[in-house]
Amino acid sequence: MRKAVRAVIIEDNKLLVMHRNKFGSQYYTLVGGRVNDHETLEQALVREVKEETGLTVTAARMLYIEKHPEPYNEQYIYLCNVAPHDSIAIQEDSEEGVMNTYDMNTHAPLWVGPAAFANLPFRTPQLHEALMKAFKKGFPKEPVEI
């Protein structure tokens, strides 16, 4: 089973999400992606966040494990702190940057508040629900399977 990592990054009461337009199918997800064979989950998380936003992860704590049947990825979702920064942007030399250049499978990171997040067409409903609950009651102290 392939693995993927996702980042929950919150600043100024806004969550960082990724808008995707995958061959005409538009949806939102968290920043992140697949774990390469030679990487740990944490190494992949740092790499994916950097590639998709330019942000540097300074600390991360696993919140959720999202199981999916084949051929989908098992996802590990982390609450992340990032280094101070000015802006966010897909890095041009990343896989996402190349796809954006060809306008076939685009990625666009953006900050959304809780009210806007509640109405987004989010990729996985169980993660969307878990995040909505966490915004109201707090994030779990130990990883939870969703």
Can you describe this structure?
With about 150 residues, the chain is an alpha+beta fold. Helices cover about 25% and strands about 40% of the residues. The chain has 4 helices and 8 strands. It has helices at about 40-55, 95-100, 115-120, 125-135; strands spanning about 5-10, 15-20, 25-30, 30-35, 55-65, 75-80, 105-110, 145. Strand 2 (about 15-20) and strand 3 (about 25-30) form a beta hairpin. The two termini are about 15 Å apart.
Strand and helix map with partners:
Blueprint: E1 3-11, E2 14-22, E3 25-29, E4 31-34, H1 41-53, E5 57-66, E6 74-82, H2 95-102, E7 105-112, H3 114-118, H4 125-137, E8 144-145
Parallel strand pairs: 1-6, 5-8
Antiparallel strand pairs: 1-2, 1-4, 2-3, 2-7, 5-6
Descriptive labels:
146 residues; alpha+beta; 8-stranded mixed beta sheet; 38% strand
Shape: globular
Q: What share of residues are in beta strands?
A: 35-45%
Helix fraction bin = 25-40%
Helix-strand sequence = EEEEHEEHEHHE
What is Rg?
Answer: 14 Å
Number of strands: 8
Distance between the termini: 17 Å
Oligomer status: single chain
Number of helices: 4
- How would you characterize the largest beta sheet? 8 strands, mixed
Q: How would you state the average pLDDT, rounded?
A: 90
Spans of 5+ residues with little confidence (pLDDT < 50)?
Answer: none
Task: Please identify the structural class as seen in this structure.
Answer: alpha+beta
